[in-house]
Each structure stands twice: as structure tokens, then as C-alpha cells.
From TrEMBL:
The keyword Oxidoreductase does not apply. The record marks D224 as: Important for catalytic activity. The active site is at Y115, D152 (proton donor/acceptor), H254 (proton acceptor). Probably binds two magnesium or manganese ions per subunit. GO terms for biological process: DNA repair. Its cofactor is Mg(2+); Mn(2+). The lineage of its organism: Bacteria, Bacillati, Actinomycetota, Actinomycetes, Mycobacteriales. The record marks N154 as: Transition state stabilizer. One of its GO terms (molecular function) is metal ion binding. The record marks H254 as: Interaction with DNA substrate. This is Exodeoxyribonuclease III. It comes from Nocardia veterana. NCBIfam families: exoDNase_III, xth. Mg(2+) binds at N9, E40, D152, N154, D253, H254.
């Protein structure tokens, strides 16, 4: 079973892999992760496999749910060994074709990659976000295997998870209903393993706007989570956000969130 799982919103797989000398492909060469959950590939399956061709040729396997709308969403799971089974979507009539969810089985472990769209308070986009979370939550509660679901949730759970929380209390990503959904998942037995390993501290943030000096000032959001349930949740022993050493070396506006499990 995998011991190191990483998750990252790549902000466009072709852009992330196209940054020569400082891009995603260079990171993939040195990462120790056994499984990597990807979000926002924003590319067809063919385009994604072409962008990742060097690592796929080197032996990595890819399970990918391509976007339902051009240039939006798209999620994948890269793994060093082939999963025994892959499922795209979670049985939703509305969302299974959107490219927001894929899961794969590795022995007695299921790993899922999810992308929850940003939403916008008091708009149909936010209503859609709540519908997605509702259906996803039901699927998560039904799991009986060891289960790790990683992704860009576009929700900061508590005031510790967003630098400027006071300025965002009425904005999507920090709305009471969104935060309550994470409470509900934790009450259902899921563990926010990064927070468990970094209790009571701001962050560690995983997303910083490209605007202004958000990255340099570490004015970020922690919206990329590993939620785990089952025996594996108690085996998380180390969690790091692989923040680029400087702005110029970023290949996404998110940083990989990597957890080592015993």
C-alpha cells in the first residue's frame, strides 16, 4: 500500500508541465510520492497524457477524468503502480461528467481526487457547489474501506486556514454553510490529517493568489486537504506543503500537499 500521497491543483496541466527547468515535470522527477492526486488539469485525456508523457514513459500510471467543459476542472491520479480499479464520478446524474472526481483502488485502500469549484455567494454557482458537496458527502459517508480523498476543496475550514479571514466571512470559500460541511465530514469519522499533524497554527497555506504580494507575504488559504477515514487516518505521520522557495519558481498557484502514512 502507498505510504506517501500528494495532492496538487496544477492550474492547467499543459502550463504546469511546460515551465522548463522549474515546472511540474522536474518536481515529478524528485518527488517521493507513491500516489499524486491532480486537480484542474483543464485538458482532455489525450492532452493530459501528452503533457505527462515523460513520466508515463518512465512507468507512472494515470487515471484521469477529463473536463466536461473546455478549460475547466479535470482531475487525475498518478501512481507508481497500476490501480486494481478506477471509478470516475460517484454516481451523480448532474456531476459525473464534469471531470471533478476520480477514485482508484490500491489493495485495501481507495484514493480519490476531487475538485470543488470556487462558487460565488448568493448565486446559482454557489447553489451548485452546495449540491456537489451534498452528493459527495453522501458518497464519502458510504465508504467502508480505508479511504483517502484529496483535492482542492475551495473551502477554508477555520480562521486558522485563511490569512485574511475577517475580510472573507461573506465570500465563497469561507461561508458558514461550506465550513459546516467540513464539520459534518469530520463528525462522520473523517480526519483532516494535515491539521491533525499541525494543530493550532495558522496554515500551512497551500494556495496564494498571483495578484499583489500574497505569496511573498504568505497571505494564503489552506484549501487543499487530505481527508482520511479508516485505519489509515491514524497512520498519517508527517505532512508538508511543498511551497516553492520563491515566487519565480512556482508552477501553479497551489503547492503540493504531501502526507506520509505509516
Amino acid at each position: 500500500m502507498a505510504s506517501i500521497i500528494s495532492s496538487v491543483n496544477v492550474n492547467g496541466i499543459r502550463a504546469a508541465t511546460g515551465k522548463t527547468g522549474k515546472g511540474m515535470l522536474e518536481w515529478l522527477v524528485v518527488t517521493e510520492a507513491d500516489i499524486i492526486c491532480l486537480q484542474e488539469t483543464r485538458a482532455t485525456d489525450e492532452q493530459t497524457r501528452k503533457a505527462l508523457a515523460p513520466v508515463l514513459d518512465a512507468g507512472w500510471f494515470l487515471a484521469h477524468a477529463e473536463p466536461g467543459a473546455k478549460g475547466r476542472a479535470g482531475v487525475g491520479i498518478l501512481s507508481r503502480r497500476a490501480p486494481s480499479r478506477v471509478r470516475i464520478g460517484f454516481g451523480s446524474t448532474e456531476f459525473d461528467g464534469a471531470g471533478r472526481y476520480v477514485e482508484a483502488d490500491f489493495d485495501d485502500l481507495t484514493v480519490a481526487s476531487v475538485y470543488v469549484h470556487t462558487g460565488e455567494a448568493d448565486t446559482p454557482m454557489q447553489d451548485e457547489k452546495y449540491r456537489f458537496l451534498g452528493e459527495l458527502g453522501a458518497h464519502m459517508k458510504a465508504q467502508t474501506r480505508d479511504f483517502v480523498i484529496c483535492g482542492d476543496w475551495n473551502v477554508a475550514h477555520t480562521e486558522l486556514d485563511i490569512k485574511n479571514w475577517k475580510g472573507n466571512v461573506k465570500n465563497a470559500g469561507f461561508l458558514p454553510g461550506e465550513r459546516a460541511w467540513i464539520d459534518e465530514m469530520l463528525a462522520a469519522g473523517y480526519v483532516d490529517v494535515v491539521r491533525q499533524l499541525h494543530p493550532g497554527v495558522p496554515g500551512p497555506y497551500s494556495w496564494w493568489s498571483y495578484r499583489g504580494r500574497a505569496f511573498d507575504n504568505d497571505a494564503g488559504w489552506r484549501i487543499d486537504y487530505h481527508l482520511a477515514r479508516g485505519a489509515i487516518a491514524g497512520r498519517a505521520k508527517q505532512a508538508v506543503v511543498e511551497r516553492a522557495p520563491e515566487y519565480a519558481l512556482r508552477w501553479s498557484d497551489h503547492a503540493p500537499v504531501t502526507v506520509q502514512y505509516r
